[in-house]
Amino acid sequence: MCPIATCLVKQCNHTWINRLSDAKNSPIYPKGQFVFMEGSLVLGAYFILKGKVKVISSNVGGKEQTVRLAGEGHMLGHSAIGLEKYSIGAVTLEESQICFIDNATLYEAFMANPKFTFEVMRFYSRELRKSEIRTKCLGLMNNEEKVILGLLYLADTYLLGSQGNQVEIDLNRQEIAQIIGTNAEQVSRVLTSLKKEGLIQTVDRTIQLPDITTLKERIRQYAYATSY
Amino acid sequence: MCPIATCLVKQCNHTWINRLSDAKNSPIYPKGQFVFMEGSLVLGAYFILKGKVKVISSNVGGKEQTVRLAGEGHMLGHSAIGLEKYSIGAVTLEESQICFIDNATLYEAFMANPKFTFEVMRFYSRELRKSEIRTKCLGLMNNEEKVILGLLYLADTYLLGSQGNQVEIDLNRQEIAQIIGTNAEQVSRVLTSLKKEGLIQTVDRTIQLPDITTLKERIRQYAYATSY
DNA sequence: CTAATAGCCTGCGAAAATGCAGGCTTTTTT
DNA sequence: AAAAAAGCCTGCATTTTCGCAGGCTATTAG
């Protein structure tokens, strides 16, 4: 039985929770694995049971942009009815367990469970709002502000509960750059500067954020907020 | 009776279509009017019956970014249950008629009409995908490409049917700049250059796109497509 | 008709971002 | 343990973007 209380599927009635539980499969993906690739057909929806995923989109030249970060309880795959090709991919950032439910079953579940459909709708609505605020930020911010935005976005998405402000980020410079639409060198420069100010620490490969409050203060003028 | 066949409300059964028809009000907003303002409470959802709307978000300094364009049949307001403050506003680009339905009524409609909820969910899902592809483009494109993206975004959103490739855009340079995260001068420069190439025409205040195909070709490497 | 205003275009210097290169450190492989 | 590879930092030259300023045009107001 699935232990994730926040999983959207939990909005179904008991009969359907069991039926979806039977219909799903839940493979474990190693770090760096594609959950689905750009240009592939979407045959159903993915629910993250455990782990971290980035949603990406690339141009033909191979340049890649991370368009969304997703964690436990999040939904992937833009559940489509009918087959849609679709120019977005998803890659695990660490070992992750991800449930898959096919479109036909999902559609039946939507028709039989209004609350489930409603909560999925709300999920997309919230993600859209987050994406739009991101659009604003990426459109108006300079490089340093974007790097701070990226760090806070990672923190917001992957800080579990309120266990202090300690967030560890285990991505390389290139991957951080792709979240905010810049390049590895710029990220390096800004991180160095933030380190000198004591706003971040680096331990081994990971970046730690001991003072999230001050970081947020830095980009306050964009009305960036943890909860959207 | 509402004449918009694509309106999402049409997914409800007849009883509910009538009930929502009674519950809604449908004011006509003049050009340049706020439908709702940034920071206001969201008390329900808006359905565009006729007209064009931009969804905006600003920073404290007053710089404004257009995060989404919406036209006939589109939904605004991120229907929320409960009251949520929310840092996004909407402004008409021309005289527009927009229906409003309050959250309580909407919630009942969602619970009673699975197909309605499902289609609203799909609407948000599609808009999210569009927003994410926009994130990619704004992250990877240079200025000229962004301007072309902006023109095509306007064309896609407001080209009604397939009446040739004639699209008229009646925004000033500043407003175009805010769609793509740049400034009026840059837009001016790119438009001049595109005009010299014969890819756009300006007649009075409006920009015409006589050759959408070639414009799309210009940014093909970003896999930008009319239908997402 | 004239004046005033708003929008538009474009040159130019300043600022920011980019991307290469070289040196360093860390991790992985052999 | 040594070698190879990958990642990281930073200086520098180049390119791009920014934003002011001035002149032009079109629209609106008087």
Short description:
Two copies of one chain form a homodimer. Chain A is 40% helix and 22% strand.
Number of helices of chain A: 7
**Low-confidence regions of chain A:** none
N- to C-terminal distance of chain A: 31 Å
Oligomer: homodimer
| CATH topology tier name of the largest domain in chain A | Jelly Rolls
CATH architecture of the largest domain in chain A: Sandwich
Compute the CA-based radius of gyration of chain A.
18 Å
Using the alpha-carbon principal axes, give the shape of chain A: elongated
Which structural class do you get from the secondary structure elements of chain A? alpha+beta
What sequence of helices (H) and strands (E) makes up the elements of chain A?
HEEEEEEEEEEHHHEHHEEH
**% residues in beta strands of chain A:** 15-25%
Helix content of chain A: 25-40%
Major sheet characteristics of chain A: 4 strands, antiparallel
| CATH class categorisation of the largest domain in chain A | Mainly Beta
Name given to the CATH homologous superfamily of the largest domain in chain A:
Jelly Rolls
* Whole-number tally of structural domains of chain A: 2
Mean pLDDT of chain A: 90
Number-wise, the strands of chain A total 13
Protein name (chains A, B): Fumarate and nitrate reduction regulatory protein
Domain HTH crp-type (chains A, B): 141-213
InterPro entries (chains A, B): cNMP-bd_dom, cNMP-bd_dom_sf, Env_Response_Regulators, HTH_CRP, RmlC-like_jellyroll, WH-like_DNA-bd_sf, WH_DNA-bd_sf
Domain Cyclic nucleotide-binding (chains A, B): 8-81
